[in-house]
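Long-time lurker. I teach an intro course on protein structure, and each term I like to show students one example going from raw sequence to a predicted 3D structure in token notation. This year I'd like something fresh instead of my usual example. Would anyone be willing to generate the tokens for the chain below so I can use it in lecture? Attribution to the forum is fine with me.
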Amino acid sequence: MIDKNSVIAANRFGLGARPGELEHIGADSRGWLKSQIARSPPAAVELTSLKPSDEILRAFFAAREERKDQRAAAKVDPVQKAGNLIRDALLPHYLAQAEARVRVAARTEVPFHERLVQFWTNHFAVSIDKPICLGIAGALENEAIRPHVTGHFGELLHAVEQHPAMLAYLDNQSSAGPDSQVARLAARRGNGQHKVGINENLAREILELHTLGVDGGYAQTDVTTFAKVLTGWSIGGGKGRLAGGTEGRYFFRENLHQPGAQFLLGKTYAQSGEDQGLAVLSDLSRHSSTARHLATKLARHFIADDPPAESVEKIAAAFRGSEGHLPTTYRALIDSHAAWETYPLKFKAPQDFIYSTYRAFDVVPPEQRALLAPFELLGQRIYSPGSPAGWPDTSKDWDGSDALMKRIEWSVAVGDRLAASRAPLVTAGQALGPALSQHTEDALHRAASTSQGLSLLLLSPEFQRR
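-- Reply from a regular --
Happy to contribute to a lecture. Here you go:
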């Protein structure tokens, strides 16, 4: 007999049960989850063939230069065709990364680990809405996040903030301190063609979103000072003052860095160059406000939109006590009593709904377009949260009438497509086990057709929540 906790493990912590998964989990649901965070699994075969971010960025830089040359020669219409070269260089990489992500999620045998990867990708959000990120948003997930999901938060933070996708998304690659070598040279030249300045985007988002949280105890002066600390964190390649380093990879540009000690969050950082920023990140990664901010987000994602204070404190205490050791933090989440409430509290975001459908039916569309189209249809296109805050994580953000109508339309289409090969009650039992309510079971019995039964399963309260 399938234990109710195995259903919670598969659907709340995982990505939805595949056929046979509930039986595989068995009675030791917590053990099944904890086994997935002991270490990171080998890279899935779908991910190993993806191009690295530096190679993609080299193609981007080349396309950008070619576009400049064509514009100068008036060979293209600057309005109609200006973006084609860049889009054509980056779009295939985006599609490959998105497809690989979905196929891994649909088939993985370590779904809790995969959900954590996607949780952190959303926490450290970059969006393909910014052209340069079209080809490297997925690379941030695969190169900076996946290798560090089972390490310390400080290592994860360091890897993300120095990844070219984050630096480019938040415009830090050319941020220059007011007393940097480049700024002093521009001042001596005294003309507008050499204006340089500081950009606060990366500093602000690290403090507000990635570590301390909006109520984490920092002030605007801390943002400005931290922005000075992060000057010089850049991407290799380029010309003139932005020359140097390996093209497309992280590179610290000393000539952009603001020299001198900096006073930030009540502490003086006297380190020089890149080490100053690393020291600040190290302290932020272990800060008590960071512990609470991350614990709240984890509890909100895995337990409830309004997470219990007791659970948040337990998770935060584990984070603080282990100095940001993520597996220790996850274990506190798993051991939280509220995480095992039998009533599913979380309304599935579109990505969760689609993943769990693919897994419940044990089917993944072979064509790239058919695989990815539902995410755009339902309003959660892969790697495009639209802002550094990431996708929202509460029911009210996803249960509007228009969004529900689109779910109905897609569920009907799935039911029609799979009616010849799936039985509603069998699929429901494999996906939901004892969580299948009598009301839903009766509705599946009364369905006028197999396709209608499959659609009703997808739209049932039990399947729509996790």
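Some talking points for your students: Residues 350-464 form one domain. The two ends are 21 Å apart (CA to CA).
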